[in-house]
Specification:
alpha/beta; Rossmann fold; Dihydrodipicolinate Reductase, domain 2; binds 6-O-phosphono-beta-D-glucopyranose; 2 domains
Length: 513
């Protein structure tokens, strides 16, 4: 069973809450279902190599791949080696790879194949002796949600999901999308929790694994500087942007069913909103942090006037970085009449004493001018300026911008006197850049999250209730949009005009990061 604070050091002098030293999980196995998919190749397998390279995996760490392929262990090792060489963050070291590869196993089979699951259960049992994993195993479901029921039933049937039967810990990792709407999310959550028990379910929203996102908690709760102004008395509005210059790549089938609101707003952006707006947790432990995030998500309100404040768009062909790019409907495998949105912008409220009246503007889109994710707090203008109007023409709102990616860091924007004999106040900025301040490079989100699964640290994983509260925000939009065509925008532009009009209606403009 997972505990609030997992401590694997037996050093009696060490405070179990001291999280500065690297923690290494106990001997364990991780089984990946869907090992040949994009996520496994581009993110999971490289992350395991990087963790091993950083000395963060136990010597007896076994990686098992499960897929419908007529493969032996060697084929799996080759696939994993290519993935790690192509996508790992840290330099290649043969000795690290040899150690990891020596403990990799492939289990061939389809999800309805009882023999294959019996084989997997037996392999895990045998590893108790050969690898000393003592029943400790995590299962990563890197498969379409429609496959969850059959895989979970197999795990139940074979006793693999059962802590008591295995004598060690058993955990399951589920990737987004967590359902398609509130109803399907509840169904999915019930199913997974029935088989594993809620404490052993780890839902990955990889944005929570990003350093800059975790830093929001440090920024807000380790400092005294920001708290006094972090509320409706001082904040005029908040903009949360996740823009991508990339298109949908080879994911047409998934994306056309999903769209920008379900793909990004429902999870990444609402989690960023929750971390920005939450109250201080009573302790830095998973339950306390999740409780505060959940309170915010439940306090989120959707505007009544959805026509004006919920805008979606779809990109048409255009130019990006000097290259002509196709429109969404011309992408491979996208239906010619698709009404799926590739851009969504929305105004939300957070009805709490701290935030009532402050609009939170969220936007995300593909094929926008650049890849950037940021949270920008715009502060109210001074109630009175003792300068002549012309002196402050170049003065905007004071702003605090948390740059999630790229150029990870923070910018504080404020007015300053332009040197000279006249009095002219203009916006200037002060910058904090991770890359210049710290020598350590930030780990990839998946490194952090996979390690936390093996350690049993649930801090960065959203709860069922958070997922459900987020769907309760998105469902009304999807109902409103159903059957209608999205607005259009040219690839390489910042979304449809209607999104600019939405802010103009409120007397504001979108930032151009
Ligand atoms: C995923 C979405 O969750 O996040 C993708 O499904 C998106 O559509 C991706 O491209 C972006 O992640 P990151 O870490 O590159 O910002």
């Amino acid at each position: 069973m997972a505990t609030e604070l997992t401590e694997h050091s037996h050093n009696p002098l060490r405070d179990p809450r001291d999280r500065r030293l690297p923690r290494v999980p106990e001997a364990c196995a991780l089984v990946v279902f869907g090992i040949t998919g994009d996520l496994a190749r581009k993110k999971l397998l490289p992350a395991f190599y990087d963790l091993a390279n950083r000395g963060l995996l136990p010597t007896n760490f076994a990686l098992l791949g499960f897929a419908r392929r007529d493969w032996g262990d060697g084929d799996f090792v080759s696939l994993a080696e290519k993935a790690a060489r192509d996508y790992a963050r840290t330099p290649w070291r043969d000795d690290v790879w040899d150690q990891l590869a020596g403990n990799m196993k492939f289990i061939p089979g389809s999800f309805d194949d009882d023999d294959a699951f019996d084989n997997l259960a037996k392999t895990l049992k045998d590893m108790g002796h050969t690898h000393g994993i003592q029943g400790n195993a995590a299962f990563f479901l890197s498969i379409p949600p429609a496959m969850f029921p059959v895989v979970l039933q197999q795990m139940q049937r074979t006793g693999m999901a059962d802590n008591d039967e295995s004598g060690g810990w058993r955990r399951v990792v589920v990737e987004k999308p967590f359902g398609h709407d509130l109803e399907s999310a509840i169904e999915l959550n019930t199913l997974v929790d029935d088989v594993f028990g809620w404490r052993d379910v780890y839902r990955i929203d990889h944005y929570l694994g990003k350093e800059t996102v975790q830093n929001l908690l440090a920024l807000r709760f380790a400092n005294t500087l920001f708290e006094p102004v972090w509320n409706a008395h001082h904040v005029d509005s908040v903009q949360i942007t996740m823009a991508e210059d990339g298109g949908i790549g080879s994911r047409a089938a998934f994306y056309d069913e999903t769209g920008a609101a379900r793909d990004v707003l429902q999870n990444h952006l609402l989690q960023l909103l929750a971390l920005t707006a939450m109250e201080e947790p009573v302790q830095f432990i998973p339950s306390a942090i999740r409780t505060e995030k959940l309170k915010v998500l439940r306090a989120v309100t959707v505007p009544e006037d959805l026509a004006s404040y919920a805008i979606r768009g779809q990109y048409e062909q255009g130019w990006l970085a000097g290259e002509r790019v196709a429109g969404y409907r011309q992408e491979k495998d996208v239906p010619e009449d698709s009404s799926t949105e590739t851009y969504a912008a929305l105004r939300l409220g957070v009805e709490t004493r701290r935030w009532a009246g402050v609009p939170f503007y969220l936007r995300t889109g593909k094929r926008l001018p650049r890849r950037v994710t940021e949270i920008a707090l715009s502060f109210r203008k001074a109630p009175h300026l003792p300068f002549a109007k012309t002196d402050t023409e170049e003065l905007g709102h004071n702003q605090l911008v948390v740059r999630v990616q790229p150029d990870e860091g923070m910018t504080l924007k404020f007015g300053s006197k332009v040197p000279g004999s006249m009095m002219e106040v203009r916006d200037v900025s002060m910058d904090f850049l991770y890359g210049e301040t710290f020598t350590e490079a930030s780990p990839e989100a998946y490194e952090r999250l996979l390690l936390d699964v093996l350690l049993g640290d649930a801090m960065l994983f959203p709860l069922n209730e958070e997922v459900e509260a987020s769907w309760a925000v998105i469902d009304p939009l999807e109902d409103y949009w159903a059957g209608a065509q999205p607005h259009s925008y040219r690839a390489g532009e910042w979304g449809p005009d209607e999104a600019d009009e939405m802010l103009a209606r409120d007397g504001r403009v979108w930032r151009r990061p």
